[in-house]
Amino acid sequence: MQFRLTRRALDDLSLSIEDYAHRLATDYVDAHEFVRAFVERRQQHAKGQEWTSLPKTAAPVYNLHHGRYRGLTWHDEESDVVWLLGVGWHESGSRGDAYAMLKRRDAAGTLMPTEEDYLDLEMSFEEARSFVVQVREQAPALVARARERPGVETRGVIAGRLSAGVVVEVVVVTDEDESLEEIWIAFELPPTPGASALPPQPEWIQVILAAMLPFEAGLDDVEFGGSFPRPGGSRSNEIVVCWRSF
Amino acid sequence: MATNPVRVPESVHGEVQAAARLLGCNAAELLARAWEAYRESPEFLSEFAYAQKALSVGDVDAVAHRLHEQAAQRARRRADGVKALRREA
């Protein structure tokens, strides 16, 4: 689960959108006391205990109090993100009261996360390019290292985050001057923590496999699943892939 | 720095979470099954072929553009999902 501030909430707290919009709130709790309160409370309860009914949006949003600050949070289960939607100053009964102001935003359609907020969850083009550059170099190199030691699992980390094991089995057909190469990959899940950004699961697997497979081979030659050739076989947290070539 | 949770496509993920709640079983196991289904989808096949072709000629930018495009589409779908929560008078 991620904890994020919408651009609107960052603005409410006078925090720089440029500096913080792409980041997890857990990474900048020191930037503002309300960010710390948001992360600490919602790590304990993603939703909260006291909810507010919004005038226009049918979503369960919860109140967050800290000193005289008041905010609204929403657990977006589909994206697995807890959002801090907006923050204001408590002035009970006043038109400027935080909750009244946040409800007015909902009525105007400016409270909930926008397309820009959701884009902030994603890799930038530069991050995507950096990922692809690393994969293009490291994925084939891992297979090449495994080829040097047939039958032995070679482990490596791709893009600083994705741990994988590779085994190359070579079957030589006697008197036929032919050999069959079987390549097994086990991707370990989840990715390890690290500085580099990753695309979501199906996309990173697509790119890594595309970098590993010879161009003449297609997905028709690939088998997913099966028992990785090591003592004990595949582990429950692995995605296992195998292909064969003559 | 942006990070991403490990997930299969949102539609599948949502169904998996709902199924896990209903069936009282392990969401991780269901997610693994959902991944198995996704990898056979036409979308996966076409994206894979595109990436393989681009990487074979060293076109890193093409793959990065496609990843970025997919991210933008995902952001649009999510924002549309939020808009759909509005009760219009």
Summarize this structure as a short list of keywords or feature phrases.
heterodimer; A: 246 residues; alpha+beta; YaeB-like fold; 2 domains; five-stranded mixed sheet; five-stranded antiparallel sheet; 28% strand; elongated; B: 89 residues; mainly alpha; 73% helix; 0% strand; flat; disordered N terminus
Short description:
The complex is a heterodimer of chains A (246) and B (89). Chain A is an alpha+beta fold.
Question: What's the topology here?
Answer:
The complex is a heterodimer of chains A (246) and B (89).
Chain A: E1 2-5, H1 7-12, H2 17-20, H3 33-44, E2 51-52, E3 61-66, E4 69-76, E5 81-89, H4 98-108, H5 115-119, H6 125-147, E6 154-158, E7 162-173, E8 178-188, H7 201-212, E9 222-224, E10 238-245
Chain B: H1 10-23, H2 27-38, H3 42-56, H4 60-83
How would you sum up this structure, described in words?
The complex is a heterodimer of chains A (246) and B (89). Chain A is an alpha+beta fold and 246 residues long. Chain A folds into 2 domains: 2-119, 2-Layer Sandwich (YaeB-like fold), CATH 3.30.2310; 125-245, no CATH class. Chain A has 7 helices and 10 strands. Chain B has helices at residues 10-23, 27-38, 42-56, 60-83. The N and C termini of chain B lie far apart (40 Å).
Strand order of the largest sheet of chain A: 1-5-4-3-2
Instruction: Give the overall shape of chain A.
Output: elongated
The major β-sheet of chain B equals: none
Radius of gyration of chain A: 25 Å
In helices, the fraction of residues of chain B equals: over 70%
**Structural domains of chain A: how many:** 2
